[in-house]
């Protein structure tokens, strides 16, 4: 088992680093990184999807020695971070400083540890907008197809202007039903690919007024004038936030291991 109090070995050379924040104290589903799905802890499902994308090194950033041990036992890599971070972005930034202090990784993917049904192709799709040097942060969305999601405040919508096929430049993120009028609405998927400099700038910014109002961290970047582009994918992976979500994930992944 890795001794997480010792200096970590250097990462392999790569432009992309995938960091998976995982904390044990989730309010609606405490201990969720270790929740068993088809006999495998949820964090291990997410780790495997990230490794299958073959984009670069994958590291779990966690406040739990138990989670770190589970990741190690699954053949992955973990780094211990403080327990008092306000967001996953803050957690991955601390981890980045510990594991890549020399700045080898140019793109940092923040992959939530509660997306066990995510496919590797979706992770890869998140990088596409960064081919444009004007883009600071890339993320994902899928068109809303269920009528009840249009008005559900737990479904975050991205309002954007098309800049290329299957790509938007984000103008706003909201829990409200937006934009008004005929046309598609897009369900935001909380996976972010940051340029390294953009992540450094983002975590140094104070929480912004609209971020506080909507309770959406990404609005901090928009209010600071940073550009976020959105790759449109076919479907939203299931995020596990509640016991009901966990049962859905178990039903979807039973038999897949």
Characterization of this structure:
The protein is of the alpha/beta class and 257 residues long. It is globular. It has nine helices and eleven strands. A hairpin with a 2-residue loop joins β2 and β3 (40-41). It has helices at residues 42-53, 65-73, 88-99, 120-125, 147-150, 196-204, 209-214, 218-223, 243-253; strands at 16-22, 36-37, 40-41, 58-62, 78-80, 107-111, 137-143, 157-164, 167-174, 186-195, 228-233. The two termini are 23 Å apart. It has a single domain (16-242), classed as Spore Coat Polysaccharide Biosynthesis Protein SpsA, Chain A (Alpha-Beta Complex), CATH 3.90.550.
Output the keywords.
9 helices; 257 residues; single chain; two-stranded antiparallel ribbon; alpha/beta; 5-stranded mixed β-barrel; Spore Coat Polysaccharide Biosynthesis Protein SpsA, Chain A
Give the N-to-C terminal Cα separation.
Answer: 23 Å
**What name is given to the CATH topology?**
Spore Coat Polysaccharide Biosynthesis Protein SpsA, Chain A
Rg for CA atoms: 18 Å
CATH class: Alpha Beta
CATH superfamily: Spore Coat Polysaccharide Biosynthesis Protein SpsA, Chain A
Q: Looking at the chains present, what oligomeric state does this protein adopt?
A: single chain
Question: Total helix count?
Answer: 9
The overall strand count is 11
Major sheet characteristics: 5 strands, mixed, barrel
How large is the share of residues in beta strands? Answer: 15-25%
CATH architecture: Alpha-Beta Complex
Structural class by sheet pairing and helices: alpha/beta
Query: Any idea what the shape is?
Result: globular
Task: List segments where confidence is low: pLDDT < 50 over at least 5 consecutive residues.
Answer: none
- Nearest-integer average pLDDT: 91
From N to C, what is the helix and strand string?
Answer: EEEHEHEHEHEHEEEHHHEH
């Amino acid at each position: 088992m890795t001794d997480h109090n010792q200096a970590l070995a250097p990462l392999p050379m790569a432009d992309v680093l995938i960091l998976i924040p995982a904390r044990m104290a989730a309010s609606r589903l405490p201990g969720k990184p270790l929740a068993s799905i088809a006999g495998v802890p949820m964090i291990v499902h997410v780790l495997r999807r990230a490794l299958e994308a073959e984009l670069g090194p994958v590291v779990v950033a966690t406040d739990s020695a138990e989670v770190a041990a589970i990741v190690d036992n699954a053949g992955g890599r973990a780094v211990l971070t403080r327990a008092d971070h306000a967001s996953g972005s803050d957690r991955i930034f601390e981890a980045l400083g510990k594991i890549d202090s020399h700045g080898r990784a140019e793109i940092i993917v923040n992959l939530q540890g509660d997306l066990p049904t995510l496919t590797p192709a979706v992770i890869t799709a998140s990088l596409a907008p960064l081919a444009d040097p004007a883009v600071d942060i890339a993320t994902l969305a899928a068109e809303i197809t269920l009528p009840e999601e249009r008005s559900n405040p737990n479904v975050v919508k991205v309002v954007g202007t098309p800049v290329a096929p299957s790509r938007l430049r984000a103008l706003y993120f909201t829990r409200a039903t937006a934009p008004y009028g005929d046309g598609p609405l897009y369900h935001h998927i909380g996976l972010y690919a940051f340029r390294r400099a953009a992540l450094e700038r983002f975590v140094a910014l104070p929480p912004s007024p609209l971020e506080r109002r909507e309770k959406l961290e990404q609005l901090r970047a928009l209010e600071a004038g940073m550009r976020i582009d959105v790759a449109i994918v076919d479907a939203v992976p299931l995020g596990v936030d509640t016991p009901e979500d966990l049962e859905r994930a178990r039903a979807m992944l039973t038999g897949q291991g």
